[in-house]
Amino acid sequence: MHHDQTKNTLKFSKAITFCFATLITGCGSGSSGPSTPQTSNPIQPDTGNNANYVSFIRDNHVSIANLTNTEDFHDLRSLDTYFSGPRLIQLGESSHGSKQMNQIKNRLTQYLHQYHDFNTIAFESSTFACTNALDIKPDISSRELMGACIFGIWMTESVLDLFDYIVASQNTERPLKLAGFDVQRSGSFDGTHHYQTFLSDALTRQPAQFELDLETLVTTVATLSERDRDCFRDYSQSGCDYIGQQLPDTKATLDKLVDHFVNQVTPEPMTLLVTRSMRRMMDMIEASYEDGISAGIRARDRGMADNFIDLADSVLSNEKIIIWAHNFHIAEHYPSAATPQKHMGAHLADHYGEDLYTVALYMLSGENASNSRQRTGVTPHAPNSLESLADEATDSIAFLPLNKQDQAGTADDWLFIETTAKEWGTRETNVVLANVYDAIILLPTSSMPDYL
User: Fold this and answer.
1) Can you give the pTM of this predicted structure?
2) What is the CATH code for 67-189+292-443?
């Protein structure tokens, strides 16, 4: 979830600034004095948590041995039953700035590729740059591939390990493909010359002629993307004015271009994906410009879902795909009654049903980074929150599968009511966990990424 898009234009009130509480450190456990005999069952401090809820996590989670071992996946084989059926697996994260979340997602991706035939990793990054990067430059290095494709928030040592694996796999019988599904531009291969070359070649392959000033179109689309950030991040009136002036004609031209490619005798799935993604970016910009940032976020999630459906149903129709994105975007249902917004994952769940399996990641302690790489500590947890229950239940990396039906007894009732869980380790949100995710991975601690 990229907060370049969480700013209002000058036409609207400025976005709320969140004031994060500082992390309370040095949380000690009780100890007995020298004259107090130790017992085999020491009294535990009262956390305020429901004991049945704590027991549910303790009894139902699967422990994961470590974050980084990609030579031995023995511990992950206990997850085979959950990953053997679905065609699509979403791997979320409560923060884009957690070293441990990047590490476990890298390890899970390699495990899913090697043991469950998942042959594509699709990032919450540029549809064009990521999906075409290895075709644009087949001999690209792993670090250059990262810069060509993904947002800078993931330019870290742990994610580089995954891109090393992607590049090395290209010389095997079963390479791990790279893709993107965001309507936003994110990498160096989003340069206008790459778009112009791609679209020019696509038009040349079609027998029907189409009159188009291609250079002007791709330049205007790129400028609209930049002015969208200016308008909503920097409150630039000139940026907002440019959007108002250029957006209507650009939308109309892209509509004609999409129609041209759709109406070919043999439409090209990748060409349609790229041009439709460009058009969906215009929908996001228009929604923010006309109705405010919440409308822009909804349009982005709708556009990402549509991009992914085009990718999975047409471009990579025979592939099993891993989705790498924020927990916010992969949510399969409205998180709560107070958040009436259909996220990308809800659109995908409607389309794919049981073929989609969604795993959210949460951290219990430590620190993480904002999108601007600012250090933020995980704040103390409220009683009966997801993090508080998990922190009391286990010290391991825990994979917690979620039933979709409330079971007999009361131990899992908290999964079917609004429960507090944190985005970015600080921002408490209400979420009905069993409705939104199929499983949760709980990380005992988090630290700042090692940025490149």
Assistant:
1) 0.90
2) 3.40.1660.10
